[in-house]
Write a structure and sequence with these properties.
The protein is α/β, with parallel strands linked by helices. It contains 13 helices and 22 strands. α8 crosses α13 and α11 packs across α13. It binds manganese (II) ion (2 copies). One manganese (II) ion binds next to loops.
Length: 453
Amino acid sequence: MDFTYSRKNIYAVADEAERKRIFEYNEGYKKFLDNGKTERETVAETIVMAEKSGYKPYTLGDKINKGDKLYYNNRGKGLFLLHAGTADVAKNGVRILVAHVDSPRLDLKQVPLYEKSDIAFLKTHYYGGIKKYQWLTIPLALHGVVVLKGGKKIDINIGESDSDPVFYITDLLPHLSQEQYKKTISEGFQAENLNLIVGGIPAAGEDSDAVKKGVLAILNEKYGIVEEDFLSAELEAVPAVKAKDVGLDRAFVASYGHDDRVCAYPEITATLETETNQTVLTILADKEEIGSEGNTGMQCILIRDILDEIAKSYGVNPAVLREHSMCLSADVTAGYDPAYASAFEEMNVGFVNRGVTLTKFTGSRGKSGSSDASAEYIGYLRGVLDAEGVIWQTGELGRVDLGGGGTVAMYIANNNIDTVDMGVPVLSMHAPYELVSKADVYSAHKAFSAFIK
Ligand code: MN
Ligand code: MN
């Protein structure tokens, strides 16, 4: 008998049919990535998928009937899919899957447009944790909304179609970088230098700010907006790149925003495809990258309101329903990167191709800021995953005391709900172009499906 524990490489054990399923599944994932680069776009895209599966809009206060498939659209930036099961929610509670659909990016400031040396720029304010230098000299697209004074909303998407222009942030040429090289990375790359080039042709007959005025004329012609309308806009600069296979064997997918759409997509497909009698609440959250605050983040009481509505409709005590509910906080973890081996502890890290990764606790230093799931809950999940033949692994974010990070897990767990993090290991997390293994993406789908069965 062998009593040792080891991880398995999915590609090494998958038969031909399983490999085919892995690759086909990722074709859908790549489309999902390209169609939704912001929280708003991903929510809209998911609503289309959910409606095709029979989901209908839900209004708080409406009675929920067994068998209902409902969605609650939270301000276009967050989404709750509810499958009202026939099982007893007083005993089984609700199975909750939650992933976030906001990703690190460069937001435009509220007064963004200026001109200097005959070039027009848009000032940005970065959102989430980024390495600033990674956002220089790459094609960037602008996505978002502009809300006019009267409330009319204009959708903006510039830079994704092949015929669209893109936006661009400069870097200094190496020939003149002797001083830049001597600086630390945080000194050498300043947030106030993250300005998008947006134009260069002066408007005819203008003496001052002629290029800026030329840009405003185009914006007004195309979208009917004036400079003041930026005050009530949410415009996000994201990499103008599409998801692509990586490697001659196409084992990997590179894309912007795998964190956390690489968990959102499996969560959605598992929810829409899995036959179950459980009540399932599948959440796409906003604002995770900046602390889950506000009315579209997971710290909002909305999840509590929706669980209360379920309890009320089923005639169950809401405290009892919460006590018996379980949650997978579906968020990415750092994949082991051999180029940066010293950042990890090799026995406790997710490896690419070895499956969706369960992270018992996140946080930093002495598990600070983590809800730390119980051995009992993980023991239960082991049984569920193994019964469905899911290849999975366990891992911490990285070496202890090197840094750390959190997820929404604690905000769910604080409602007296057993919660643990489980997600796909990512290489180059938070970079403009991140990398995941196709096998791990499909493993996440299988794991989330097993969980709600
Ligand atoms: Mn994340
Ligand atoms: Mn993140």
